[in-house]
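Section 3.1 - Work completed
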Amino acid sequence: MSPTFPGAAVLSLAVSLLPARVTSPMGRAPKPEHGLSAPKMWQDRTGHFALERPAAERWMLRSGVRGPDGEPVPLLAMSQETGAQLVVQTADGIHDIRLLARILMENLAGEARVHVEDVQRVLARGGEAYGFSFTVADEVRGRVAVVRAGDYVALAVASWPMGAPPEVVDDV
């Protein structure tokens, strides 16, 4: 062991033992927040699922809209600013969500100019989930996730333009 190492260790300990002086900042100090702030949640009207709202103000969340097939869509989140969107639907009576994710992937892969990646297990709070990514030509990227939520299954389809900033992708 080098003789300089113990000297350096003693010197660093000696410096840390010197009394520290605490002073209050000059001027106005911001009011400290009490505890951690809980994330803002968006709750489905039926109570089947809840999502953490993105912190950015660019998102408009709507419920009770109808899809192209006339079926109700529990959540449609859109960003007019970026063109990104998220659609969440629910279903019951689905036993094998991995199979459902694979069927969705195969159906989407059959569309023109669409490239899909393989189904993978996805991290999800409180349950099993599978998903896959897709691209449409050089225009849009997206992700599909099938998540077990108690007795129900939530299907989330998110898409965003290729040139969207990273924070939009993080929000989705």
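Second construct:
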Amino acid sequence: MKKIIKTGITTLALVLAVAAGVKAQTKGNSEPQRPSFSLSVGPEAGIPVGNFSDFYKWSLGGSVQADYAIIKKTLYVNLNAGFANVFADDVPGLDDLQWIPVKAGLRYYPFQSNNLYVQGQAGVNFITNGPTGYKTAAFTYSPQIGYLIPLGKGSYLDAGVKFDGNSKFVDGGDAANLIGLRVAYTFKL
């Protein structure tokens, strides 16, 4: 557990350090360099936490997300869909879990001249290969903190650290939670 916390803190520190460096390069420009409407595509990786980590090692997947500004390029509504494979530990009879999360949420940029954001999403996680007795869907939620790094005209790198929480996939079981990282190529539409 300590290793997971250290990894999360280190990743967050790295994202914030990159954010500070990018901020230094764009000083003097008080207008945000954020698109009104964007699409992002990228990989996601995670480490199971809690009792879920007793049976699963890590996850790898990808997602597509659309963001649309609803208030002055500060508050965005978004839709996200993806696929993830959660790799099982070496437990006889235990297979990898595969799921398709579909979520909606809000992204907020608290500083007008900075691309640091906080995001919250909620939705449904569809289990594609659950063992007998597993539910086929579960409630999922994902708070995230990240930074939108400008790459060039209309393109960005979106890097964020997130927590993926899922309700129980089986009655009497434990929640399936992960701490993850999403790095996506973002382009304005």
